[in-house]
């Protein structure tokens, strides 16, 4: 980004990121060159960052400050990965599959949390890796949840790697199928014999926050077991959506609505139908698939 188009916040964050990402504590000249600022401008911004604790000055070099360290510690406790970990653990236990959590980036998705059972140790965890939409279920679920105008950068990555966009086997058909069903499924696109199933967490339409994916051997994703896996993933993503929304406001929950705000009573038949639907037992098809009995060759598996 050209220096003249950057705000004061951009300049400050560029310098904090440059200090935090340096292999060894950089000097002022190094930082100014790294972020594309005039040396005097970089110095003025660094003075404020040092004062606020975001950067620590040691002689003529700069290190991450205490504010960065406090934020990192807080983020580790309150991050999306920490919030989702119990949900991922429960999903892995229920299905016997590897489970991961991904977040959208500019043109791919990034794996930020992984739970892998011992029986699937031959499948790569891919933790921290950025995954393209045409090879993995996680980014496919995320892209399908975006507004069409927001998908272009993801599609360009697929095009650059020679993956077709049009036709029945093209990426656009995959995206439409995923948008319609709510689930992304892929078989061996990254590595045989591994398959994956993903669903996006979308608290607000058009703005997916993350995707939950189960990964295992392709044989465990047959038609008979796929419905059970989809139900398990649906429940996990719904639970995570609820966690992201947070508990309802105490004031809102305790304050009765005025007479004009009270919703009309449902007809008896409607109320009875609603009560019946909430009391149904889970379908037997939601039982988890049995674990695979055969070992797989080492594979850089999908997510």
How would you describe the overall organization of this protein?
Helix 1 (about 10-20) packs across helix 3 (about 40-50), helix 5 runs antiparallel to helix 9 and helix 6 (about 135-145) packs across helix 8. By secondary structure, this protein is α+β, with helices and mostly antiparallel strands. The radius of gyration is 24 Å and the shape is elongated. A hairpin with a 6-residue loop joins strand 6 and strand 7. The chain is built from 11 helices and 8 strands. A 6-stranded antiparallel sheet has the order 5-4-3-8-7-6. Strands 1-2 form a two-stranded antiparallel sheet.
Tags for this model:
303 residues
Secondary structure: elements and pairs:
Elements: H1 8-21, H2 28-35, H3 39-52, E1 55-58, E2 61-64, H4 66-78, H5 80-95, E3 98-104, E4 109-115, E5 130-131, H6 137-145, H7 152-160, H8 171-181, E6 184-187, E7 194-201, E8 210-217, H9 223-245, H10 250-254, H11 268-278
Antiparallel strand pairs: 1-2, 3-4, 3-8, 4-5, 6-7, 7-8
Helix pairs in contact: 1-2, 1-3, 2-3, 5-9, 6-8
Describe the structure concisely for a colleague.
The chain is an alpha+beta fold and 303 residues long.
Order of helices and strands: HHHEEHHEEEHHHEEEHHH
Distance between the termini: 32 Å
Mean pLDDT: 83
The dominant shape is: elongated
The biggest beta sheet is recorded as: 6 strands, antiparallel
Which stretches of 5+ consecutive residues score pLDDT under 50? 251-300
Portion in helices: 40-55%
Oligomeric description of these chains: single chain
Q: In which order are the strands of the major sheet placed?
A: 5-4-3-8-7-6
**Count of alpha and pi helical runs:** 11
Give a count of the beta strands, DSSP E runs of length 2 or more.
Answer: 8
Determine Rg (CA atoms, Å): 24 Å
- Percent of residues in β-strands: 5-15%
Q: Which structural category fits the helices and strands?
A: alpha+beta
């Amino acid at each position: 980004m050209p220096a003249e188009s950057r705000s004061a916040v951009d300049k400050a964050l560029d310098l904090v990121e440059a200090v935090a990402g340096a292999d060894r504590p950089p000097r002022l000249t190094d930082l100014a060159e790294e972020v594309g600022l005039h040396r005097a401008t970089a110095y003025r911004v660094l003075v404020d960052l040092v004062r606020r604790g975001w950067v620590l000055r040691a002689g003529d070099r700069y290190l991450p400050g205490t504010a960065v360290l406090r934020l990192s510690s807080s983020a580790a406790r309150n991050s999306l990965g920490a919030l989702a970990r119990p949900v991922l653990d429960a999903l892995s236990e229920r299905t016997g599959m590897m489970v991961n959590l991904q977040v959208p980036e500019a043109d791919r998705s990034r794996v930020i949390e992984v739970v892998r059972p011992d029986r699937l140790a031959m499948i790569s965890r891919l933790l921290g890796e950025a995954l393209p939409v045409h090879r993995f279920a996680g980014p496919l679920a995320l892209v399908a949840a975006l507004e069409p105008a927001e998908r272009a950068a993801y599609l360009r990555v697929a095009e650059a790697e020679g993956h077709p966009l049009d036709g029945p086997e093209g990426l656009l058909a995959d995206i439409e199928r995923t948008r319609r069903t709510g689930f992304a499924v892929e078989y061996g696109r990254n590595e045989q014999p591994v398959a994956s199933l993903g669903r996006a967490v979308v608290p607000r339409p058009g703005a997916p926050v993350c995707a939950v994916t189960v990964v295992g051997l392709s044989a465990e994703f047959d038609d008979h077991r796929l419905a059970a896996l989809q139900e398990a993933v649906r429940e996990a993503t719904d639970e995570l959506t609820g966690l992201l929304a947070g508990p309802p406001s105490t004031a809102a929950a305790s304050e009765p609505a005025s007479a004009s705000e009270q919703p009309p009573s449902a007809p008896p038949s409607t109320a009875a139908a609603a009560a019946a639907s909430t009391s149904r037992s889970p379908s037997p098809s939601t039982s988890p698939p049995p674990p695979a009995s055969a070992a797989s060759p080492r594979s850089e598996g999908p997510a």
